[in-house]
Design brief:
CATH superfamily of the largest domain: Aldolase class I
CATH topology of the largest domain: TIM Barrel
Strand content: 15-25%
Distance between the termini: 45 Å
Strand order of the largest sheet: 1-2-3-4-5-6-7-10
Radius of gyration: 31 Å
CATH architecture of the largest domain: Alpha-Beta Barrel
Number of helices: 21
Oligomer: single chain
Structural class: alpha/beta
Shape: globular
CATH class of the largest domain: Alpha Beta
Length: 763
């Protein structure tokens, strides 16, 4: 069985060349806009062309990341940018936005479509949904186990890509709005400020980094991952250095190609940890482990322990190391309190044995403290001083007296033939084959290395060395051009239609309910529609509640769980009422007229809205858009979130377990955590067979006093999210919004409420 593709990150051209030299099969990189790593320098069109040329020359594929949500106001800029990027010859595009995917599929059908991990695909239904849309590959959610991936492979035909190394998001990718709701920087648009790497306090415990995920490393379970039948193994790291890219890629390349000993694997893992680690590695969600995936002490690179402070004398510290030290190494002494003092070693600091050093004494440093090496200059040097790879080429010379010299260059399936000057008649002895070979073998400075040189001569021949050299140069140049040539594709001119909205009658007010008290309030006040959350009510109770709702003349439906890896909802719970879905795969489990898409399937542009309307009766417009932006996209049949604590994370981690103590129970609970500014965040814990948490804003969105703004969006459904409100609070909220629907904005915003992005869109 052939190995899956090894896919490496490239934040810039230097990283790309490092990845190629280390043995990757494909690289992924972003342009200067519309990619999920805004902090990476990215590739402009000129450098993108250079990247494609370089990778094709070395038989490496190029994948472009266009994996952000695109606003309707940006659509024309995106379309122009996409046209330019498509012309560079990229092999595939990784996308999150369904509108972007549809645009690429229609205009550039020769470019492979890959569904980003930002699409949160974690079940077979989601994979089939994208397969039906014309995707060639899906990058699966990182929250899946070996068993989950095997099950998806058995049910799916298209290519599957999985992450095997690098940084982990605390939230399910694509489902994190925390950065957006703290400072307006959207992770779905490549602007994440990484609030999950900050400290939070649970209960009366001291602040800790409760959401700081360790990096993933799967070297020791790589055979098991490969056995799942995946097609591509992805390394995270477009913000990392070229040395990091080379070191990690070469380590996994060796592990894929060779049966490495446990000792060699341990050494490789150690090198990767020295390049970057947050308190060690985890295996991610691939296997169930007792060890935590969280590093609660520090979110920074922690390096590796190399020794301790063994002596303090005369204002200097003596560090005894277990391993050789080098000039330019960066050491850190772990004092009782951060920030820890760090030093960059110079030659004068090192002792003769090379395993110890004297450095200047700092405050709070005492004998016995542990010393860590953050940067190993020798390792960095080894991973940066690589040789550019050369592809093997077969050169076949045909030299016949009185005819033009011919040289054929072959590399893989590509062959070119060049003719040169006429072969002369030798005055004395025919030219020796060794002399011809000496000219043809000189491929230094080119991307090629001779694998074989074949020489055929006829007659008494002579050809000047200069002519042979010129023939070789022309043949290799022609071969390079042939390997990098992009097939010309017909371009389908851009079509941008005008906005056509459906007219509707008034506004429907609906509520998502989590408790019996909230249902009592909704029923008493005759709200238009209710959604019963499947996580918070048993199936039997929901059946009863549906009956109660119908008897009260209130339309109702079931809100499916936010996270579930089952294959098909319709098979296990064939609801006959409308369903509120939160994942792409859930949309295909029910008739379209029964499907209502919630905010977890984000919509920022008309193209995405048009596509989703083919699978659902209604969609929910992005909570990251302003009222002005929403007015360009929304239709009367669509929904906006008008009230409630906004779900900003869906995670398979547990804040209760990390911040306090695991309760080992089933059911749902509410936990409050506080950030460094003492602002609250509300966590909903779902314990049981499939444990996961939902993290919400600590204060609810409130817009009842801004009914004109809500109506400006064009959405005909105003959805109210109820989480932990009691009976009186629920009644007050519903009454306020019933008045707002009538245009009576008489209620002021309550204390500690938020406006979301209605007045200020996300970046």
């Amino acid at each position: 069985m052939s190995h899956p593709e090894l896919l490496s990150p490239a934040g810039n051209m230097e990283c790309l060349k490092s990845a190629v030299a280390a043995g990757c099969n494909a690289v992924y990189f972003g342009g200067t806009r519309f990619n999920a790593r805004h902090g990476a320098s990215g590739f402009d069109i000129a450098s993108m062309k250079e990247a494609v040329h370089y990778t094709r020359l070395h038989n490496v594929k190029t994948l472009l990341t266009v994996n952000t949500l695109v606003k309707e106001t940006e659509w024309k800029d995106f379309a122009v940018s996409m046209e330019q990027m498509a012309e560079t010859g990229i092999d595939g595009v990784i996308v999150q936005d369904l509108g972007v995917a549809d645009h690429i599929r229609r205009h550039y059908p020769w470019i492979a479509l890959h569904g980003s991990t930002q699409m949160s695909v974690h079940a077979p239904d989601g994979v089939r949904f994208l397969e039906d849309l014309g995707f060639q590959r899906v990058v699966l959610a990182r929250e899946l186990s070996l068993e989950d991936v095997r099950r998806i492979r058995e049910c799916s035909k298209i290519e599957l890509e999985v992450f095997i190394h690098g940084a982990m998001c605390y939230s399910v990718s694509g489902q994190c709005l925390m950065s957006s709701f703290i400072g307006g920087r959207s992770g779905n648009r490549g602007m994440c400020a990484q609030p999950c790497r900050l400290a939070y306090r649970a209960g009366d415990r001291k602040p800790a980094y409760l959401m700081d995920m360790k990096d993933m490393c799967t070297l020791d379970i790589l055979p098991e991952i490969v056995s799942c039948g995946v097609d591509s193994l992805k390394i995270e790291g477009r913000l990392k250095s070229p040395e990091y890219v080379y070191g990690v890629t070469s380590g996994y390349r060796a592990a894929l190609d060779h049966m490495l000993s446990e000792e060699t694997l341990a050494e490789s893992k150690q090198e990767m940890a020295q390049l970057f680690n947050r308190g060690g590695f985890s295996r991610g969600y691939w296997v169930k482990a007792k060890d935590s995936m969280i590093e609660a002490e520090s979110p920074k690179h922690q390096g590796l322990r190399i020794g301790k402070v063994s002596e303090i004398r005369g204002g200097r510290i003596y560090i005894a190391s277990d391993t050789p030290l080098h000039a330019q190494d960066v050491l850190e002494i772990r004092t009782e309190k951060a920030p820890f003092p760090s030093y960059q070693l110079q030659e004068r600091n090192l002792t003769d044995d090379g395993c110890s050093a004297w450095i200047t004494l700092e405050r709070n440093v005492r004998k016995g403290l542990e010393v860590y090496r953050l940067i190993d200059s020798a390792l960095v040097g080894r991973f940066s001083n690589y040789e550019s790879p050369q592809r093997p080429v077969i050169l076949s010379a045909d030299l016949t007296e009185g005819r033009q010299a011919r040289l054929t260059a072959s590399c893989g399936d590509t062959t070119v033939t060049i003719e040169g000057s006429v072969v002369e008649t030798a005055l004395e002895h025919s030219m020796e084959e060794a002399a011809i070979r000496r000219s043809l073998i000189k491929t230094g400075g080119t991307p090629f290395v001779p694998e074989d040189i074949r020489i055929r001569t006829e007659g008494s021949i002579f050809i000047p060395v200069s002519a042979l050299n010129e023939l070789r140069r022309k043949a290799l140049t022609a071969l390079e051009d042939a390997l990098c040539q992009r097939e010309q594709r017909p371009y389908d001119p851009l079509r941008l239609g005008s906005l056509q909205k459906e007219s509707g009658a008034g506004v429907r007010l609906e509520a998502v309910l989590s408790t019996e008290e909230q249902w009592s309030a909704a029923m008493e006040l005759k709200i238009d529609h209710v959604w019963f959350r499947r996580e918070r009510f048993s199936r039997q109770r929901i059946v009863e509640l549906i009956g109660e709702a119908h008897a009260a003349g209130i339309s109702c439906g079931v809100s499916l769980p936010y996270f579930d890896v089952r294959e098909t909802w319709q098979q296990e719970e064939p609801w006959e009422v409308p369903v509120l879905v939160h994942g792409l795969g859930q949309t295909t489990a029910f008739p379209a007229e029964h499907v209502f898409c919630d905010m977890q399937i984000p919509v920022m542009n008309r193209a995405a809205a048009d596509l989703i309307h083919g699978y659902a009766d209604s969609l929910t417009l992005s909570v990251e858009s302003s009222a002005e932006e929403l007015s360009l996209v929304g239709e009367n049949r669509d929904a906006i979130i008008a009230y409630g604590k906004i779900p900003v994370m869906t995670t398979r981690q547990c804040l209760q377990k990390e911040g306090l103590k695991c309760l080992h129970g089933s059911g749902s609970r509410i936990l409050e955590i506080r950030d460094r500014k003492d602002e609250p965040w509300t966590a909903e814990l779902h314990c049981g067979k499939s444990c996961y948490n939902m993290l919400y804003t600590g204060h609810p969105l409130w817009m009842a006093d801004r009914s004109k703004v809500l109506k400006k969006t064009g959405a005909g459904i105003w959805r109210l999210l109820f989480l932990d409100e009691d009976l009186a609070q629920t009644q007050s909220v519903i009454r306020s919004y019933q008045e707002a629907v009538k245009g009576h904005s008489v209620y002021d915003a309550p204390d500690h409420s938020i406006r979301g992005h209605f007045f200020k869109p996300c970046l």
